[in-house]
Design a protein that fits this description.
This protein has a 7-stranded mixed β-sheet with strand order 2-3-6-7-8-9-10. Helix 5 links the parallel strand 7 and strand 8. It is built from 12 helices and 10 strands. It is an alpha/beta fold. The N and C termini lie far apart (71 Å). Helices cover 32% and strands 12% of the residues.
C-alpha cells in the first residue's frame, strides 16, 4: 500500500503524476533514492518565458460564453486542486500536479502581440475573455504586470473584455476597467468557492482570501464596473451548503449577476482530487466522488457540451433549483450582461492623436 503523501505547504497537489502523453516517467525509489522521508520536496515556483507568436486564442465550444480569449500565463500558482486547466500542462511535457502550479510559463510579449492583432485589418471587434484557462491575477502578475499591460491596450482600442479571477489584485486595475465600462465594454466575474478560510486554504492555497475577493467585488461595483460572482466549483458534501451564503455576501458587496459550475474532473484531475480528499477529508472521500458521478452520468467527468458545465440527473437539477432560489432571495437577477464593441477604435487613433 502506497503511503498517503503529506500536504505540501502552499500547494494544492502533493504529487507530480505522469502525463497521459509521457512515454517514460521517473519516480523516487521506495528504498531511499528520493527525499529522505519518501515525500516530495516542496517545489519552488519558477517562471519560464513563453515565446508564443500570437496571444488571442479561439474556441468553438457552445457552452463557455466566449469565442476568443487571452491567457498571459500557462500554469497557475494559485494551486487550486480542482482546476480544470491542469491537464493543459501535459501538452508541455509537464505534470498536471505540482508542475502546473510551480512551473509557470509567462508570455512577456503579450501586450505587444495584442496590439498587433487588434491593429490588423482582419480583426473583427469582439469580446475577449481574460482568462479562458489560468488566472490573469495569479501571484506573478503583481510584479510582471502583463495583465495590466494588456488591459491598457484594450482600453486604448476600447475593445470589450470580460474578466474572471480569484485574485484581489484586480482592484489595482479598476481605473482601466472603469474606463472601458463607460462604453459598455467591461465586466468582471469574481470566482468564490467558499467563505470558509480554512477550506479555501486547502482548496486554493495561493488564491486571494474569500474576504479579499468580496472586497474586490465592492471596489469594482463602486467604480461602476458590472461585477458578478461565479460559485465554482460546487463540490458535493464539501461546499454545496454555501451556495446561499456566497450569493448573499456577493450581493451585499455589489454583485449583480451570478453563475455556477459543479465540479468536473477531466483526465488526471480525478486522481489528484481523490488524493486531495484522502489527505484532507478521508471520511467524505467516497461520498464526494459518488455524488460527482451522480452529476456526471456515472463517471467522474462528462466532456459533452451543454451538460459538462451544469451536470445532469436529479442531483444536478437539485443544485440548479437551489441556485435559482438563492439568487431570487438575495436579489441577483439572472440576466446576462451584454458587452458592446460599438466604441472600438482601430489603432487607438483617437487616444494617440486626439
Amino acid at each position: 500500500m502506497q503511503p498517503i503523501p503529506l500536504t505540501i505547504q502552499g500547494r494544492g497537489a502533493a504529487t507530480n503524476p505522469a502525463s497521459r502523453f509521457e512515454l517514460l516517467h521517473v519516480e523516487a525509489h521506495p528504498d531511499g533514492w528520493g527525499p529522505e522521508d519518501g515525500q516530495p520536496a516542496p517545489p519552488e515556483t519558477i517562471y519560464l518565458k513563453d515565446a508564443t507568436r500570437s496571444i488571442i486564442a479561439y474556441n468553438d465550444s457552445p457552452d463557455v460564453g466566449f469565442d476568443a480569449s487571452i491567457n498571459p500565463y500557462r500554469g497557475c500558482a494559485h494551486g487550486c486542486i480542482y482546476c480544470f486547466a491542469r491537464p493543459t500542462h501535459e501538452y508541455l511535457d509537464m505534470s498536471a500536479g505540482l508542475d502546473f502550479e510551480s512551473k509557470i510559463l509567462v508570455k512577456t510579449d503579450a501586450a505587444a502581440l495584442l496590439r498587433k492583432e487588434l491593429s490588423a485589418k482582419s480583426w473583427r471587434p469582439q469580446t475577449l475573455a481574460r482568462s479562458g484557462v489560468t488566472d490573469p491575477y495569479q501571484p506573478a502578475e503583481r510584479t510582471l504586470k502583463i495583465t495590466r499591460q494588456c488591459l491598457e491596450v484594450l482600453a486604448e482600442y476600447r475593445n470589450p473584455v470580460a474578466m474572471i479571477t480569484k485574485g484581489r489584485l484586480i482592484e489595482r486595475d479598476v481605473d482601466l476597467l472603469a474606463e472601458l465600462a463607460k462604453f459598455d465594454a467591461a465586466l468582471v466575474c469574481i470566482s468564490i468557492t467558499t467563505l470558509d478560510n480554512a477550506l479555501a486554504a486547502k482548496m486554493e492555497p495561493r488564491a486571494s482570501s474569500p474576504r479579499g475577493r468580496l472586497e474586490a467585488i465592492r471596489a469594482l461595483a463602486n467604480a461602476g464596473v458590472p461585477v458578478g460572482v461565479l460559485v465554482a466549483p460546487i463540490v458535493p458534501a464539501i461546499n454545496d451548503h454555501e451556495i446561499l451564503p456566497i450569493l448573499k455576501a456577493a450581493a451585499e458587496h455589489g454583485a449583480t449577476f451570478a453563475g455556477y459550475v459543479p465540479l468536473r474532473l477531466p483526465y488526471g484531475i480525478k486522481d489528484l482530487f481523490a488524493d486531495w480528499l484522502t489527505r484532507h477529508f478521508p471520511g467524505r472521500r467516497e461520498k464526494v466522488l459518488n455524488r460527482v458521478m451522480d452529476l456526471r452520468g456515472g463517471k467522474l467527468n462528462d466532456p459533452n457540451f451543454n451538460t459538462r458545465m451544469k451536470g445532469r440527473g436529479p442531483f444536478a437539477e437539485y443544485i440548479g433549483q437551489i441556485f435559482d432560489v438563492a439568487c431570487r432571495r438575495v436579489g441577483i437577477n439572472g440576466q446576462r450582461i451584454k458587452l458592446s464593441a460599438a466604441a472600438f477604435r482601430r489603432h487607438g487613433a483617437e487616444s494617440l492623436f486626439g
